[in-house]
Amino acid sequence: xxxxxxxxxxxxxxxxxxxxxxxxxxxxxxxxxxxxxxxxxxxxxxxxxxxxxxxxxxxxxxxxxxxxxxxxxxxxxxxxxxxxxxxxxxxxxxxxxxxxxxxxxxxxxxxxxxxxxxxxxxxxxxxxxxxxxxxxxxxxxxxxxxxxxxxxxxxxxxxxxxxxxxxxxxxxxxxxxxxxxxxxxxxxxxxxxxxxxxxxxxxxxxxxxxxxxxxxxxxxxxxxxxxxxxxxxxxxxxxxxxxxxxxxxxxxxxxxxxxxxxxxxxxxxxxxxxxxxxxxxxxxxxxxxxxxxxxxxxxxxxxxxxxxxxxxxxxxxxxxxxxxxxxxxxxxxxxxxxxxxxxxxxxxxxxxxxxxxxxxxxxxxxxxxxxxxxxxxxxxxxxxxxxxxxx
Length: 391
Description:
Layout: E1 3-4, E2 15-17, E3 22-24, E4 26-28, H1 42-45, E5 50-54, H2 71-80, E6 85-89, H3 90-96, E7 103-106, H4 112-126, H5 137-142, H6 146-155, E8 164-167, E9 177-181, E10 190-193, H7 196-209, H8 213-227, H9 234-239, E11 246-250, E12 257-264, E13 267-274, E14 288-289, H10 295-308, E15 312-319, E16 325-331, H11 338-342, E17 345-349, E18 355-359, H12 364-379, E19 383-385
Parallel strand pairs: 5-6, 5-7
Antiparallel strand pairs: 1-2, 2-3, 4-19, 8-11, 9-10, 9-11, 12-13, 12-15, 13-14, 13-17, 15-16, 17-18
Helix pairs in contact: 2-12
């Protein structure tokens, strides 16, 4: 059992063992009732742990989607900063439950079957414990789901998101619009549409591509019912009809490029992506340049990270003729790191929006560790406990 040495209080706290006359240290939350106790359970105080939760030893993502981040390096860096960190598997999280004073950074996945499985578990365990997550519940679900992205943050108004509607039925299109399937990265699943017929054709083609033997058998059975009088239920068919949700986004004509900006706390990496000839998409074009960005672009992206309250975020940004910036897409987990890996420099934005360009001397894993450390100390307000020697 450990007591609190009341003479050691400054801005920190010391845990004192009266038996061994030895002090210990760590991080502490919820200290408001501690003064009324003569003794305090040591294990209760050191429940503060960051758990990195993997799926089959995978945490996404590195340059190749199937390649994991080096989470051992992230763990080591955080431990060296006195953030006690452990790596656990998803089944450990399920079996052990949620420790009230610990934080959890959980991998997402690009495989949609695995992603659904992860979503089910994360929602079930953290629906009333969002404060224990590094990547918030809403941002975790927004990964690989452009529909959720379009609805969060006051329908995107708080982050200046280009107007987007989340739909499931084919709609009349009054003007050229960008059609986006809700999942998929790069330019996959993104089309320019001018009519309801365009939308119906895209959805029909997608359903044909995804047609499995099982679904083909169901379709055949349905056709037989149609031919057999009295056995065809049009109401039931409509009810069970396959639907494809999608996002319809305002089309900005004449764009020649957009920006991919990766924000790791106050470190920003910027990539300019040019639009291909005879196309409207910059994502996936391969026409990339690392440029000297406008200060307003950096401040805009840094403000988005603050608004969504995440240690890091990947943002796709466009610039309009009037000089205003708009977000068109964002991810706060499992995003592509090309911009950070291939840049020679980054920009640091201070709280007062002073900007310094710095040569890159850190790895991707360093940036993740740095961002999480800053997030836990500055946003979650972890209090340090000083380390002292045994006497």
